[in-house]
Design brief:
173 residues, alpha+beta, Aminopeptidase, 33% strand, globular
Length: 173
C-alpha cells in the first residue's frame, strides 16, 4: 500500500465517505449512529476533522483500492487544556467489500504513527463489545483495555458493552 494524492479523489471524498458510513450503519456496524448519517452530517464531520489537521489537532487517513474509497479513519486531540496531550481515535470505517484485506490495520497503523508524530501521549478509543474483529485489531497494535461499561450501548432491544482502549506512547519510549 502506498500514499498518494489526487485532487479528483478529494472532490469525491464526502460522497464516498457518506456511502461507506451509511452502508455500514445500515448493516449494523458500531460507528456511533443508529440510523445512517446524512450526507450533510458526514460533510460536517470531515470538515471539522480537516480544519483541525493544520494545527496538529487531528489526522485523517483514507484508503483507496482501484481509485475507490474503501476506508477512512481519524483521530481528534482532546480540546480541554488538561487533556491536550491526548487524542481519541474516533472512527475506523472500512467498506464491507474490503474487509479482510488489511485496510483497517493499515489505516489504524498510519493514524498511530500520525498521533505519535503529533506529540500525542495517550491515544484512546472506545468500541462496542461485540465488535470482536476491531477489538482484536486494537490489541494486536498495542492498545490495552482500561475500562468497560456493561450493557451501555442500546440499539433497539439489544445491549452491548462499551469497551475503552488506550495506547500509551509514554510507556513505549
Amino acid at each position: 500500500m502506498g500514499l498518494t494524492s489526487a485532487s479528483e479523489l478529494e472532490a469525491q471524498l464526502v460522497e464516498s465517505a457518506h456511502q461507506i458510513l451509511a452502508d455500514l450503519v445500515r448493516g449494523g456496524a458500531a460507528l456511533g449512529w443508529i440510523e445512517p448519517p446524512s450526507r450533510d452530517e458526514v460533510a460536517e464531520l470531515l470538515g471539522r476533522v480537516l480544519s483541525a489537521v493544520p494545527a496538529g489537532d487531528a489526522a485523517l487517513r483514507v484508503a483507496y483500492l482501484d481509485r475507490r474509497l474503501v476506508g477512512l479513519g481519524y483521530w481528534l486531540r482532546y480540546s480541554r487544556p488538561t487533556h491536550r496531550p491526548h487524542a481519541d481515535l474516533e472512527k475506523i470505517a472500512v467498506d464491507a467489500a474490503a474487509h479482510g484485506r488489511g485496510v483497517g490495520r493499515a489505516l489504524t497503523a498510519a493514524l498511530i504513527t500520525d498521533a505519535r508524530e503529533a506529540g500525542i501521549e495517550v491515544l484512546t478509543l472506545d468500541a462496542r463489545g461485540d465488535n470482536t474483529n476491531a477489538l482484536h485489531l486494537y490489541r494486536s497494535l498495542g492498545f490495552t483495555e482500561y475500562g468497560r461499561l456493561p450493557d451501555f450501548v442500546a440499539v433497539g432491544e439489544h445491549r452491548y458493552d462499551k469497551v475503552f482502549y488506550m495506547l500509551d506512547f509514554r510507556q513505549q519510549g
